[in-house]
Amino acid sequence: MTLYYSIVFALLILEMAMFMLLIVPLPFSARRKLFRFLATSEIVGQINYCIRITFIFVAVLFIDAFQRMMKVSQEFKVAEGREGFQDFRTETNYHAKKFYAQRNVYLTGFTLFLSLILARTHSLVLDLINTQEELVANSPTKAVSGDVKKYQTEIETMKKQMQQQQTEYNRLSDELAKAQSNVSDKKSD
Predict the structure, then answer these.
(1) Residue 12 and residue 113: Cα distance in Å, rounded?
(2) How far apart (Å, rounded) are the C-alpha atoms in residues 89 and 95?
(3) Which pLDDT value is given to residue 108?
(4) Integer angstrom CA distances of residue 92 from 23, 72, 89, 166
(5) Contact predicate 43/143, CB 8 Å
(6) Closest Cα to residue 117, out of 23, 9, 10?
(7) pLDDT by residue (tens digit) across 12-71?
(8) Domain map of the chain by residue range?
(9) What is each CA distance from 188 to 174, 177, 182, in whole angstroms?
(10) N or C end of the chain, less CB within 10 A?
(11) Both ends of the chain: CA-CA distance in Å?
(12) Is the overall model pTM greater than 0.85, yes or no?
């Protein structure tokens, strides 16, 4: 593998590691500190800028690899139709060229695709953290504890009402059963 495709492979591995770091379940405070550091650090901003420039080069490599794959496929079809691959070494050479061209397309394509997913996941996690912070800021603990007590009293009231309704339902169903047995006794007489 050439040097620039080795760099693209290293970039792909780095992206996978960053993605795993994004999706690892962390406590809210640790996640908030990590993402605040990533969002406000100048060094991370400079690294991000360099990575964006690198992705422009990866996109150019993707286009080049795709064109090379198409060219090799065309050569393969022409050679297969013209010669019929009478020489085993020639056929192996064409298959190797095709394999390397496809590998390069997949490598650069996956790197570009994962960079898009990584950027979107990062923005979604930042939005989630900001929303959680707003939720915590808008509902102080005193109001929350007061709301909890209010909901507990409402639940107790509902339980009492449910118990009373259950008792009344049982009484009425017993009366209905007695009335039906009386009616059936009178019909049988």
Answers:
(1) 10
(2) 10
(3) 95
(4) 43, 13, 5, 82
(5) no
(6) 23
(7) 999 999 888 888 888 878 888 888 887 788 887 888 888 888 889 999 999 999 999 999
(8) 1-138, 141-188
(9) 21, 16, 10
(10) C
(11) 102
(12) no
